């Protein structure tokens, strides 16, 4: 199809879409020379409304004398109209002058011009002789009597919101093209059964364009195929095409196979009428959209001639292949979106169950039963299965649950029952069979044989021990599954085998699905006992009956089976003919062979006490209240539970004298068990009523208050328990020794943390600078630190606005406290903190204390160069409470103060009015050359104020080459900053002075600004292997005192201009200690 043809089709579709708008007269039919009908007369009326396009000025065709015949006068008038509106009706399809043919675009323009009110004629365009509806417009033919339709407001019929819109495209030769969706809304309180639907073919197409037309409810086909006759498509089913529930809605889609020879046509359908068991209403015809038929190469789907299975008889069974075919996918991959099979046979809808669809072994969908019409539909629309080109095995399996003596044959009846979409074009392909036109693909008709029963031990058959002397105990559970038909079991053979008494079992009963069937009997030892059921044991086809065997743990003479004796129940092979199929009346033997249950062991009652592994030995301090001094587990055996009435806690005389308020608690709930022993003795019996089920357990904790002043020693309680088993026998738990609780002393220590902050220069006016981090640790008891004294030297205190502490409490929440410093006669100022809640666990884990200081501005009293450290006095530095104990104790952490600056380079804050930052910059040079930058760096001043630099030292190392006449420049200035030659100090460093070492010239960098510098020199002897040059800043390793610029010995000499009348001779010049960033300042060259 060429581009111009596509444009024409699109234009025609657009015109048809516009024609669907409600108007007084709508042009929906192409008109040409020789056309007749009311549309022609309406056209002449509209053309006569404009003098420029009138048909004739007088006589036939003139205003008021319009006719229903399209002659030469009308054609000439149409050409005038088309030329007048050429940009809208000619240019879009590549024409430059009118043709006289009234096509889609011309009609679209006519329809925008208002139209005229007309009276329906006696004949209608598009009506063939005998036709009920026009094949073009979808309107009733006036020369015939339209079919009687029930109209009203009860079953409202409308176009669905998701119906394919005009302008879409479908493909010639495709299957089940989606043409239109209609919504049927039942507004009544009764079910609406739709028995007839009449459609009209619309668009620019012929009857053969739609080869098979179907109605679908979702992916399920609800009609057989219908053909198009004179533009009309009819679906009839007196039993009902589909039903719409009371108050419900249903969307029905119209789909059709498209002829392979109709490319370029435009197809659509309208809903002309509906016949239903309740009144139907709608604006009939309900128009669908118009779709263009395009040409494209579709994928192919070809079914094999052979469809399995081929067996003519089959036993009831699970996982039977009911339909299978090897299909060939060609040209393009396909997306399988649905498959519908129909049963052709006499079985009931529930006889085949659990349908499963597989493609190449992959399970795609499951459907429980056939529907009421014998169909099974697999809906994959939400997750289509991609089938690549080549051979693909499509298989459906099911369980044969019933249907004895009846037949079934699963069949793919129509090509429309499989929706396989071309993966590239997204349109359904038309299936074929054996490379020819599709015909039904059916398995062989099979007759289901008579019913059967399978017997097996139930997975939940008892396996736990049973108690000595227990009665009415479930000993075995078996499954009996019926297939093919309902099966009545007349009797079963039950056998008991015991290992010691060999005397059978007393009072045996058979239960079917939870209810006893048959009489109570004693079981014989090693031989079958037959139980009869009359008609009370019938297992329905496809279901599993559960058989339970109960008896007493006693011989048939009522003697208790002994401890460790075993019991085995067997469902022996049935007597021939002990069961019968209720449909086939065939005899069955149930079970066909013996089925054994689990071997059970008879066990005497048991209760044990063990030390709880989740609580280990502990060390606690004296004076601790509510201390957990032990934990144990009470456990019962598998045969029966126990009711524990007494637990006894035994202590030595020394242990008993060390504690008060002894009590037991349920570990899970925390509830107290028994009463508190205020003054414990050596044997402490707790009375209780604690039920523990069979194979159950309960963890119990022992608590007590440890007396203050108790010396170092151990507490290790012994526990016994007693009670009554579920069956009434006494049970006792032997004594067990619990955890060892050592009474020791608690310790609390303080040290500088490993994460103590490095020393730093800080600008005056900073509100919060971290000066130190300390760690508390404890053993044997947790503590809460409540008071701390932080010391700052008097010299630095005037440069500190106050001290802030940050720590975590027992809940893990971060707490903060602030105090100012107070000074006195001592050398240090003190910030005293009370009411703290710093929690220190007993595990030895660190609890951290962060110390921050605030710094005032220089004008508010801060002294440039002041060195601030934080100290906690060992003598009275802090107070802590041992948790669980009453007294508050003052603890000393060491024999000396704990100071933040204990390690060199850490824990000191140096006050500066402002701070410079030095940063190395890439030189941009790969070969050192005379006159080019050998080293580049920036100096940035803090926003707090300008900085001045008098002296800069560089370490310059050379190998087999030389650099001389080294000078420092500000980038962009050709005059060297050092007016005298660079010096070499005693350490070999190259030293630059701004100006000279003695004059007042300085480098000044304004607040918040940056200046850029470079070092140049005369390079000689470069170019041989081994030549190298390395340049870096020379740092100062420790803080120096402030001094004048000339007298300062630092490698870097700079000033924060903190003196009142700052000059080079004021004592506010500082060395380079802690000036950043010198850590990455090396520039290296090598040849």
Automatic annotation (TrEMBL):
Keyword Signal belongs to the record = yes
Name the keywords, alphabetized. Answer: Signal
Keyword Signal carried by entry: yes
Q: Where is the signal peptide?
A: 1-24
Q: Which superkingdom does the taxonomy of this entry point to?
A: Bacteria
What is this protein identified as? Peptidoglycan binding-like domain-containing protein
Organism per entry: Candidatus Yonathbacteria bacterium RIFCSPLOWO2_01_FULL_43_27
């Amino acid at each position: 199809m060429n581009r111009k043809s596509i444009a024409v089709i699109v234009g025609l579709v657009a015109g048809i879409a516009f024609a669907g708008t409600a108007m007084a007269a709508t042009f929906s039919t192409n008109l040409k020379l020789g056309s007749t009908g009311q549309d022609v007369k309406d056209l002449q009326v509209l053309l006569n409304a404009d003098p420029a396009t009138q048909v004739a000025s007088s006589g036939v065709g003139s205003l008021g004398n319009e006719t229903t015949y399209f002659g030469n006068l009308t054609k000439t008038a149409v050409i005038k109209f088309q030329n007048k509106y050429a940009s809208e009706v000619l240019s879009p399809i590549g024409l430059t002058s009118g043709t006289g043919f009234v096509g889609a675009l011309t009609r679209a323009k006519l329809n925008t011009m208002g139209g005229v009110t007309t009276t329906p004629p006696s004949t209608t365009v598009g009506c063939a002789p005998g036709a009920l509806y026009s094949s073009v417009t979808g309107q009733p033919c006036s020369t015939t009597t339209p079919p009687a339709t029930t109209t009203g407001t009860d079953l409202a019929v409308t176009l669905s919101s998701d119906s394919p819109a005009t302008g879409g495209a479908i493909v010639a030769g495709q299957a089940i093209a989606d043409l239109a969706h209609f919504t049927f809304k039942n507004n009544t309180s009764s079910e609406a059964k739709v028995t007839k639907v009449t459609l009209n073919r619309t668009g620019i197409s012929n009857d053969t364009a739609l080869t098979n037309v179907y109605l679908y409810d979702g992916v399920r086909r609800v009609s057989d195929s219908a053909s198009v006759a004179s533009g009309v498509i009819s679906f009839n089913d007196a039993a009902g095409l589909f039903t719409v529930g009371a108050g419900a809605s249903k969307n029905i889609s119209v789909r059709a196979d498209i002829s392979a020879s109709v490319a370029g046509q435009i197809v659509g359908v309208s809903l002309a009428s509906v016949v239903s068991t309740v009144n139907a209403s709608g604006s009939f015809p309900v128009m669908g959209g118009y779709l263009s038929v395009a040409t494209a190469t579709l994928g192919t789907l070809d079914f094999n001639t052979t469809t399995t299975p081929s067996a003519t008889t089959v036993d009831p069974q699970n996982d039977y292949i009911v339909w299978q075919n090897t299909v060939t996918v060609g040209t393009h991959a396909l997306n399988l979106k649905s498959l519908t099979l129909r049963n052709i046979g006499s079985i009931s809808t529930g006889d085949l169950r659990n349908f499963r669809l597989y493609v190449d072994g992959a399970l795609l969908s499951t459907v429980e039963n056939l529907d009421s019409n014998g169909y099974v539909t697999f809906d994959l629309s939400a997750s289509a299965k991609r089938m690549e080109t080549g051979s693909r095995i499509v298989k459906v399996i099911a369980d044969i649950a019933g249907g004895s003596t009846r037949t079934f044959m699963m069949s793919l009846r129509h090509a429309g029952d499989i929706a396989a979409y071309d993966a590239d074009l997204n349109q359904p392909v038309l299936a074929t069979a054996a490379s020819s036109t599709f015909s039904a693909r059916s398995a062989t008709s099979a007759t289901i044989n008579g019913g059967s029963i399978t017997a097996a031990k139930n997975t939940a058959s008892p396996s736990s021990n049973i108690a000595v002397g227990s009665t009415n105990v479930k000993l075995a559970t078996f499954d009996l599954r019926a297939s093919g038909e309902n099966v009545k079991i007349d009797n079963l053979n039950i056998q008991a085998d015991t290992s010691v008494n060999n005397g059978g079992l007393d009072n045996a009963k058979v239960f079917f699905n939870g209810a006893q069937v048959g009489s109570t009997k004693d079981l014989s030892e090693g031989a079958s006992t037959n139980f009869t059921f009359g008609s009370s044991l019938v297992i329905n086809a496809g279901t599993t009956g559960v058989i339970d065997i109960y008896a007493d743990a006693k011989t048939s003479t009522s003697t208790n089976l002994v401890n460790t004796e075993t019991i085995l129940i067997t469902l022996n092979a049935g007597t021939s003919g002990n069961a019968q199929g209720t449909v086939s009346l065939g005899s069955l033997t149930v079970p066909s062979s013996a089925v054994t249950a689990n071997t059970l062991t008879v066990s005497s009652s048991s209760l044990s006490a063990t030390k709880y592994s989740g609580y280990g030995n502990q060390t606690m301090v004296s004076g601790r209240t509510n201390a957990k001094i032990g934990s144990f587990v009470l456990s019962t055996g598998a045969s029966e539970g126990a009711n524990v009435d007494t637990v006894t806690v035994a202590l030595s005389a020394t242990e008993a004298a060390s504690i008060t308020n002894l009590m037991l608690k349920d570990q899970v709930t925390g509830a107290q068990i028994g009463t508190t022993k205020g003054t414990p003795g050596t044997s402490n019996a707790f009375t209780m009523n604690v039920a523990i089920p069979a194979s159950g357990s309960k963890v119990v904790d022992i608590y007590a208050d440890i007396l203050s002043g108790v010396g170092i020693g151990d507490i290790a309680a012994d526990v016994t328990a007693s009670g009554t088993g579920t069956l009434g026998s006494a049970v006792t738990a032997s004594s067990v020794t619990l955890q060892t609780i050592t009474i020791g002393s608690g310790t609390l220590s303080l040290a500088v943390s490993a994460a103590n902050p490095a020393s730093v220069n800080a600008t005056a006016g900073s509100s919060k600078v971290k000066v130190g981090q300390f760690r508390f640790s404890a053993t044997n008891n947790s503590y809460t630190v409540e008071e701390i004294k932080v010391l700052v030297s008097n010299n630095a205190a005037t440069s500190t606005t106050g001290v802030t502490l940050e720590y975590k409490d027992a809940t893990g929440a971060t707490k903060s406290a602030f105090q100012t410093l107070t000074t006195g006669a001592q050398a240090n100022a003190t910030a005293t903190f009370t009411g703290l809640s710093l929690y220190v666990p007993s595990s030895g884990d660190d609890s951290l204390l962060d110390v921050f200081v605030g710094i005032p501005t220089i004008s508010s009293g801060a002294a440039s160069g002041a060195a601030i450290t934080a100290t906690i006095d060992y003598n009275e530095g802090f107070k802590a409470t041992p948790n669980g104990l009453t007294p508050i104790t003052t603890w000393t952490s060491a024999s000396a103060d704990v100071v933040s600056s204990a390690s060199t380079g850490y824990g000191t804050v140096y006050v500066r009015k402002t701070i410079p930052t030095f940063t190395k910059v890439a030189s941009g040079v790969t070969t050192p050359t005379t006159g080019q930058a050998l080293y580049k760096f920036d100096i940035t001043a803090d926003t707090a104020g300008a900085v001045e630099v008098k002296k800069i030292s560089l370490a310059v190392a050379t190998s087999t080459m030389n650099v001389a006449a080294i000078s420092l420049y500000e980038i962009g200035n050709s005059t060297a900053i050092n007016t005298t030659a660079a010096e070499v100090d005693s350490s070999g460093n190259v030293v630059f002075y701004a100006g000279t070492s003695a004059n007042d010239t300085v480098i000044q960098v304004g607040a918040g600004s940056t200046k850029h510098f470079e070092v140049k020199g005369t390079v000689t002897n470069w170019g041989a292997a081994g030549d190298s040059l390395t340049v870096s800043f020379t740092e100062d390793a420790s803080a120096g005192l402030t001094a004048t610029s000339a007298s300062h010995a630092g490698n870097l000499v700079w000033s924060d201009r903190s003196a009142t009348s700052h000059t080079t001779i004021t004592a506010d010049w500082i060395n380079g200690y802690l000036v950043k960033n010198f850590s990455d300042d090396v520039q290296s060259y090598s040849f």
